[in-house]
Amino acid sequence: MALARKSSPHTHGPRSTQWLMQQVLIATVPGLIVLTSFFGIGTLLNILIASVTAIGCEAAVLKLRKRPLGFYLSDYSALVTAVLLGIALPPLVPWWLTVTGTAFAIIIAKHLYGGMGYNPFNPAMIGYVVLLISFPLQMSAWLAPGGLLVDGTPAMGPDFMSSLKIVFLGNPIDGFTAATPLDAFKHNSGLLVSQFYEQTPQFSQGQWAGFGWEWVNIAFLFGGVYLLARKVFTWHGPVGMLAGLSVMALFNYDGGSSTSNGSILFHLLSGATMFGAFFIVTDPVTSATSNRGRLIYGAMIGIIMFLIRSWGNYPEALAFAVLLMNFAAPFIDYYTPPRTYGHSKSGTIIHRSKED
Amino acid sequence: MRKTWDIHGGIHPAENKQQSLTGSLQAVPLPKTLVLPLSQHIGGPATPVVSIGDKVLKGQLIAAAKGFVSAPVHASSSGVISAIEERAVPHVSGMQAPCIVIETDGDDHWIEHSGTADYRKKTASELAAIIRDKGITGLGGAGFPTAVKLQPQQTIDTLLINATECEPYITADDQLMRQRSADILVGIDILAHILGDPERVLIGIEDNKPEAQEALANALANKPVTEHAPPIEVVEFPTKYPSGGEKQLIQILTGEEVPSGKLPADLGIVCQNIGTTHAIYRAVCHGEPLVSRVTTVTGKACSKPGNFEVLIGTPVAHLLEQAGFDEALCPQLIMGGPMMGFALPSTAVPIVKATNCLLATTAQESPAPPPAQACIRCGHCAEVCPANLLPQQLYWHAQSKNYERLEAHHLGDCIECGACSYVCPSSIPLVQYYRAAKGEIRLINEEKQQSDRARIRFERHQARIEQEEKDKAAKREARKLAAEAAKAKREADPKTGATDTTSVNTEKSTADLDIVQAAMARVAANKASPQDQRKRFERAIETTAARLAKAEKDLEALTKDDSAELNKEQLAQLDQHRASVEQARLRHQEAKNKLAALDAEQSSEQKTQPESPTDNAGEPTLDRAATAIARAQKNAAQLALMTPEQKLQKQRDSLEKRLSKAQTRLAQAESEGNEQLEAFAKAVSTLNEKIKATDRELATLTQATQPANKPAQQSEETR
Ligand code: SF4
Ligand code: SF4
Questions:
Q1: Least confident interval from A278-282, B281-285, B616-620
Q2: Which phi and psi (to 5°) does residue B310 adopt?
Q3: Distance B392 CA to ligand 1 centre (A)
Q4: What predicted TM-score, i.e. pTM, was given to this entire model?
Q5: Alpha-carbon torsion (A345, A350, A355, B1), positive or negative
Q6: For the domain that residue B376 is a member of, what is the CATH number?
Q7: Same domain flag for B397 and B310
Q8: How far is the CA of B391 from the centre of ligand 2 (A)?
Q9: Does some domain include residue B526?
Q10: Same-domain pairing of B380 and B476
Q11: Which of A19, A66, A70 sits opposite B673 (nearest CB)?
Q12: What is the pLDDT of residue A206?
């Protein structure tokens, strides 16, 4: 009788890498809905273009590396990279920009380093930074959130057809853009924060941290909480980052003077904070591995983000902070091993201190 | 309720216990043959004390324990010894091992035996001797001889009884507790008495066994009160795998961790499986040796799953038949549980003392794992590891064969529970990698120990030479006299030759004494003739070589056509083949090493013989012990003569060999676009580094030792 002889364990839990990736994709939905409702279909177009590019590039590279296509494509990792990059890019960027960034992310940042699981840097963030450095103009043009009253008239995004024309034919986008809250705040010169808030429509019409953007952040927070509840990742990375950012904001917020760096709430609900905390910091491949390591990794990203936001040249800093810490992740791992059963903290063997 | 502690990690796989708990404990019809392996326990295999054709009775000793850590084997039914030979035994490797085969006569006739209910009148060592003589080993799965744990040097204040049974499917202990809890409590009381009535006696049980708990509680309530006897407490804690690991149970019940490399006894704790306590009760109170046990037979490929009281040595096929096993439904048969059990090569192997479960699942019940994907470093494995290791880091280093990093990450503390593999979303067979790496590390350590020993001998030798320089003449005289005396004595009475030689040698330095004792031990341990051993090793080499060749061929067949795309299944196969090639290679190497060691021993023996003082008379029957002693001395001298340069040189040679192997592998990987390319490249560069370091060391050493060596050599000549 022929019996198979596999090594133990002979049973496996219900989770697969595919399932994890699917969960991440599902969790972006609330954020996407809010983004689309404020900024139009730009982000969805980004995602569509990025996804097609990503799958095409992935298939081509796999073909070159003689790997089975179906097996590797079905892990959804390329799709996740595409969706995350698509969300990070400003809506309605020209199509070739998205294609370039995605191709760079998949071919260079992922496969050149050995493919899935081997890449030291977050591919989506690499793609983003490459574009930001190469095409700063296009990359900093954000649309005004729909419904924002500027000089009494509500901002209107381009309609469907003109959106397509902007993306595919290169029609100008200028008429529709506005400074993001982070941008605006950075260029505050000489006003107290309260005055500035009153005078700037982005803030005066918002609840806490800028019209539209605060809801985008809350929606991504919502998706993140879903992932936490499904135990896709632990809380350490995101909480570390939010805590790092908050602590920095707390110490540098001087009650709202003209040189203030913004309140905690402003930082937590602006720009890419929540998206970064729950969708970028949590990328397992490029982060630290132990729980303690991830706490430190997240916190450092939060701190660096604050530093760049406050004193750097770029209004948003997620990508730079993440890439920097990707670089540091192996060192964090090296210094934060968990205490193994039967070993003392210092790595030497513990002795019993018996109290009888 | 007593406080319990939580362990790190752990998982909750589907329990699947109810299937085998529908009925009560079932008897098994007497099988026609019983196959009793000589090694069913951890430690030295037992030595047969019967021969082919002997009639034996149930419970009769058929193989005696050899050494301290060992256990005897008893006939599990009456009949005739029909063979003492190598048979397939249940073992992870699917190997063959010496077994005693009994053709049963159907009478199941017991040998005369008796026990005592008044065990508290006996001393601890008397009781421990009974437990040892009755062949009792841990019945929880590991099979450690029970008596060895019962007489520790340390004072024991806690006796833990492991009634956890945390593996899915297995219910043998559960059933036993439901039906025999009174007997179990007596067994526990015996243990407590042996251990000097420790303060705490705790039965640790998971909260998924309420019936067993109730049975224990009832039995406790009805238990007659004995003087001195410590109270027995049943402690319940939440179900979680692997709570039943010894270290884990200790942490759950006491909050303490067994320090790495230490024993529970160092914490004043002794831990025993609950099934074992029942066997102890039978042995002490009824005088019955361990001839049967409770085994769960379950899985959807069995139509009548349940718990069976089965004779040790019963063929697996016979037991499966009782449970309505359908071969056609079962792609793989597991001995033990789904998490830590191992797959059986066939149903011809026997049930042994440690067999707590036969798991015959269908293909739907435990589907073949999907092919492994890349590690996404999700950290799920680290979250569930009960030893709080970083399994993904271990996997990483195991792949690149970075043994230093593996040890720094405490690979040795991995209990191979399989929790990490269970949760890994990329279904990487992590435990398989750890086992292979542990095997490699064991080999390397053995080599290292050998060279260390040689170094120590060298240093001792140097010291001794200095000493000997002073009183060389006197010593030579004394030795000559002693040798003559020994010769005369031996000629008078050849049987006591061995002891006489020893007494001569004891006059020598203590270093020599060590060597002599080691040699004596070796003689005692090496009953098999070198020829037999040689044959065995050669056979092992042949079979492993064949297996390796086959595995390599399989792998090649798969990878040859590298232009073709591999589909999912092929990819999975590829992984499996790679693993089996690796395993086969390891085994082959091990066998070769053993043979080489044997050869070295023999050749030195031949060289020694002519100049051996004990051989001067040209006696045809050379006393084996005396030869061995002489050989040991000679060996020591030879090893001691090996200069550090030579040792380093040797080390360098082996490094170079490894390097060239690694390079070919790298080249191969490059041509195939293998995904492990980086790992190989790293291995090559580390090896290069090591060689360089060795060279440097060699250079400094040559300068340093050149002058120092000369006097040593001179003294060697003048002696
Ligand atoms: S669970 Fe598997 S994929 Fe996740 S980190 Fe561990 S080994 Fe890697
Ligand atoms: S098999 Fe080893 S590494 Fe994996 S979970 Fe168990 S103890 Fe940890």
A1: B616-620
A2: -120, 145
A3: 6
A4: 0.71
A5: positive
A6: 1.10.1060
A7: no
A8: 7
A9: no
A10: yes
A11: A66
A12: 65
